[in-house]
Specification:
The chain has twelve helices and eleven strands. It is an alpha/beta fold. The protein has a six-stranded mixed sheet, sandwiched between helices.
């Protein structure tokens, strides 16, 4: 097992503005992602979730404001970006955007090798990431022979081989069948137990409610942050963000319950008391 590095601190944006030529996307977004807490990033298609993740990872340079880790602002020099990516890793929604090699183990080793690490350490990191993602049976497989869900887990393993303190996941369960979703969430749980803080962008409000402690809702180029139960129980915010209230909170609202259940088990616990 790797030694626990000194925590880098919270990951945040300050008055961040970002977009693309002729298309502004984010306008003055300030969020604080707390180390050790699960955060769900929510919003409609095109609202800027991926752009925000790309800014946080250093992959997209904002037009205004800044990204800060702990007390250290992100600089966009080559050396500073390389250092930042050892702390913060992004996995995009489509795994084919991040799989470069013909074979699974080779692909997972890509990042550590580019860091110039000794071969023994690269092998240790690859073995560690394969174990964390539960993909030992895929280690010698060609990447083009993998299923979509398997390719997603290999892409996450490649990011974990960098041993980041922060892992930003863009729609990690999108396109997966129920078994694939369960496997991905189990893998995420192992990553967290290992000391990595996970931020997940998702359209699945029921998943966000059950999984996250905090939420960031992006709408109209701005952001609203707070406890996930509070934000997903706010009908006005959800309407503005083109999101639906998750069913446990709809049930609690219609039944007049004074609590906000997050999943089926918590709903059943309330029903036993009423």
């Amino acid at each position: 097992m790797r030694p626990d590095p000194a925590p880098a601190g919270d990951l945040r944006t300050e008055d961040l503005s970002a977009g693309y030529p002729g298309r502004p996307v984010l306008d003055g977004v300030s969020v604080t992602l707390t180390s050790g807490r699960r955060t769900a990033l929510l919003g409609a298609n095109g609202c800027g979730k991926t752009t925000l993740l790309r800014c946080l990872s250093g992959a997209h340079r904002p037009g205004g404001g800044r990204v800060v880790v702990g007390e250290r602002p992100l600089r966009h020099s080559r050396g500073a970006l390389n250092a930042h990516r050892r702390i913060v890793q992004l996995v995009l929604q489509d795994p084919d955007d991040q799989l470069f090699s013909a074979e699974v183990t080779q692909d997972i080793s890509f990042g550590p090798m580019n860091m110039g690490l000794p071969e023994d350490e690269v092998r240790d990191r690859v073995a560690e990431a394969i174990d964390l993602l539960g993909i030992g049976h895929l280690a010698d497989r060609p990447t083009h022979q993998l299923s979509y869900g398997e390719r997603k887990r290999v892409a996450v393993a490649g990011a974990m081989a960098m041993r980041p303190q922060w892992l930003l996941l863009d729609e990690p369960t999108a396109g997966l069948d129920p078994r694939g979703e369960d496997e991905m969430l189990a893998a995420i749980g192992r990553l967290e137990a290992y000391g990595t803080t996970v931020v997940m962008a998702t359209h699945d409000v029921a998943l966000a409610l059950a999984w996250a402690s905090d939420a960031v809702v992006v709408t109209g180029g701005r952001s609203v942050q707070g406890p996930v139960t509070d934000l997903l129980a706010d009908p006005d915010l959800l309407a503005a963000a083109h999101l639906r209230m998750p069913w446990p909170l709809v049930l609690a609202r219609r039944c007049g319950w004074p609590v906000q259940p997050r999943d089926l088990d918590e709903v059943l616990a309330v029903l036993r008391l009423v």
